[in-house]
Amino acid sequence: PHTRGSDSTMAGQNVLLSKEVMIAAGAIGFNYSVTMGIIFVNKLLFLRTKFPVLTLAASHLAVSALFTRAAMYAGVFKPRDAKMDRMIFAVAALQTLAISLGQASLKLNSMGFFQLTKQLQVPLVASIEFFYLGRRLSVKKVGLLVIMTLGVCTACASDVQFSWLGALMAATGTACTSVEAVLYSHLQQSLGWETLQLLYKTMPLATAGMTVVAMYNDFGVSAPSGGVGGGGDVYGAGSGNFLTGMDALGMTLFLSSCALGMAVNVSSCFVNGKASALAYAMLGLAKTITVILVGIAFFDGVPTTRVAAGTLTAICAILMYTKLTLDDKAKAAALKNSGLDVREETLEVMKAPLMEGGATKR
Predict the structure, then answer these.
(1) Which of 71, 103, 238, 278 is in Cβ range 3.0-4.6 Å of 50 for a Cys bridge?
(2) Distance CA 140, CA 138 (A)
(3) DSSP label at 352?
(4) Other C-beta atoms within 10 Å of 101: how many?
(5) Residue 229: pLDDT band by 50, 70, 90 thresholds?
C-alpha cells in the first residue's frame, strides 16, 4: 500500500527527473560554463590586444543576430509574425543600456563597488516580478535571497571606491539588466515566444544600438577623464591602434570571444524562458563566487576569513533555496496525483520554474 510519505518521495523523484527541470538545469549549467569561458578568453584578448570593449560587445551582439538568421534559414524555428511592439524595442534598448552603463561603471568606480552593485540584481528582479507580474515568494525564500545576496556582497566587498556619477551609472545599469531579464522571461513564459524567435527580433536592434555607442566612444569623440578606475574616456576604450596584437592568435581569441558571446546571449535568454529571471539572477551570484574562488586559486586573490565566510554562506543559501523549490514542486505534484481538491494557488507551484518555484499570482 502507498503512503503519503511514499507518494511524496516518488513525486519528488519525478519532479527532479522531469523534462522541465532537466532542461532548465542543463541550460543553467551551459550558461555557467560559457560565461566562465568567455571571462578567460576576454582576459587573454585584452592582455594581448587593445581591442575596445564596447566594439567587442557590439561584435558579440552582431554574431548573435547572424546566428538567429542562420538558424531561421536552416529551419530550426519559424519567425513569429508580430508587429515591432514597444516591449520588444524596450528589451533591445535595455540590453544596450545595460552593457554601456556596466562598462561605464567599471571605469568610474572600483572593481569592488562594481561587483557589489551587480549583486543587487537578485532583490531587484524579485521586486520587479512582485510588483509587475504579481509573483509572490514565501518568507523562507525571501530570507534565503537576502542571505545569499549579503553573502556574496561580503565576499567581494573590498576596495570599495566610487564617484557619484559612477554610482548613478552602476545603479541604472543594474536596474536595466534586471528589467531586461524580467521582460525576456515574461515574453517567453507568458506570451509564448520561443528563445530564437525573440532573439531574432531583439538582437538586430541591440546590435544597432551598441554599434552606435561603440563607434562614438571607441572611434569618435571621447568623454573626459576623471573616474576612480582611471583616466581616459568614460567607457575605458582601448588607447592607441586597436589592431595592435591582432595577429593569428589575437584573431583566434577575438573569434572565440564572439562565438562564446553568442552562446552566452542565447543561453541567457533560454535560461530566462525555461527557468526564470530570478534563477538567472541567482546564477549571477554563483558566477561571482566562482570568479572569486578562481582568483584565489590561480591568480593574486587573497583568501581571507571574510571571503570564506561570505562564499560559504551564499553557497549554503543557494542550495537551500533550490531544495526548498524542488520540495514545493514535489508536494504540489503529490497533491495533484492523490486526487485531492487542490487549490489553484498550490497548483501554480508546479508551473514555477527551477530555482523560482512557489511563485503565485496575486
Answers:
(1) 238
(2) 5
(3) S
(4) 22
(5) very low
Cα 96 to chain centroid distance, Å, stands at: 14
Which residue from 217, 119, 114, 123 is spatially nearest to 167, judged by alpha carbons?
A: 114
**In 3-state terms, what secondary structure has residue 77?**
coil
* Residue-level pLDDT at 48: 87
Inform me whether the pLDDT recorded for 234 exceeds 90. Answer: no
Phi, then psi, of 75 in degrees rounded to 5: 85, 15
Look up residue 114 and give its three cell numbers: 562594481
Q: What is the DSSP string of 254-303?
A: HHHHHHHHHHHHHHHHHHHHHT-HHHHHHHHHHHHHHHHHHHHHHSS---
> CA-based angle 69:74:77, to the nearest 5?
75
| Residues 206 and 96 sit within 8 Å (Cβ to Cβ) | yes
**DSSP secondary structure string for all residues of 146-184:** HHHHHHHHHHH--S----HHHHHHHHHHHHHHHHHHHHH
Q: Which of 125, 135, 134 is nearest to 175 (CA)?
A: 125
Is the overall model pTM greater than 0.90, yes or no? no
User: How many other CB atoms sit within 10 Å of the CB of residue 116?
Assistant: 21
Q: Which residue has the higher pLDDT, 66 or 307?
A: 66
Burial class (CB in 10 A: 0-12, 13-18, 19+), 291: middle
Residue 85 predicted with pLDDT over 90: no
Are 176 and 97 a contacting pair, CB within 8 Å?
Answer: yes
Structural element, H or E, at residue 87: helix 86-108
- Residues 146-188 pLDDT 10s: 999 999 999 887 777 778 888 898 899 999 999 999 999 999 9
Q: Is the dihedral angle over the CA atoms 140, 145, 146, 151 positive or is it negative?
A: positive
Task: Return d(Cα 274, Cα 126) in angstroms, integer.
Answer: 17
Hey, which bits of the chain come out as E strands? 135-136, 360-361
